[in-house]
Amino acid sequence: MAVKNNDLGGLIMKATQQLKDEHEGIKLMLRIMEKIAMDVEQGKVPNTAHCERIIDFLKGFADRCHHGKEEDILFPELVKHGIPNEGGPVGVMLNEHVMGREYIKALADAVEELKAGNMHAATSFVDAARGYVQLLRAHIEKENNVLFMMADKVLDEKEQSALFDAFERLEAEKIGVGKHEEYHKLLKELKDAYL
Q1: What total number of domains does the chain contain?
Q2: CB of 35 closer than 8 Å to CB of 54
Q3: Which of 55, 88, 170, 186 would you call most buried, defined as having the most Cβ atoms within 10 angstroms of its Cβ?
Q4: Cα–Cα distances in Å, from 46 out to 27, 53, 84, 91, 135?
Q5: What is the mean pLDDT of residues 43-70?
């Protein structure tokens, strides 16, 4: 839950906690991707329909929604509070978002090749999946244990609550109402199938 109690007993919506909660869903998808990559390495043909749904999750939830909240709302606010972009932690996170998009494109290209019957694309799929998993795991650790801790020090409760509300609006605009729940159902379905 992305809330905390304030001194008056009321609930304050905490933006950084919402992002940490979303990281848990992304980390689960990374475990699923890792399992599929291991299966492919052992000669199994991947379920391309599942792979396409994973790519939709990565593009829609991880990138457009989650990274959108960071890039459009949180990071500019942190820069205003003196956390550097260029050569600083915000710039590093932004660069890693770009790298993640490159891996997602490589994954999507490999799945299209696999669907067309090119089994040589399995190697490209595994490489892209493993690269993305490695990048995102390290990225999430840096955000949870460095950047969000910095944010919690510079943003007061009112600012956290305002960011939380802005996150909710962005989510409705970028992925649509109810889509978040669909992604959670997908995570459960794929977890049951692979883990």
Answers
A1: 1
A2: no
A3: 186
A4: 20, 12, 42, 35, 22
A5: 96
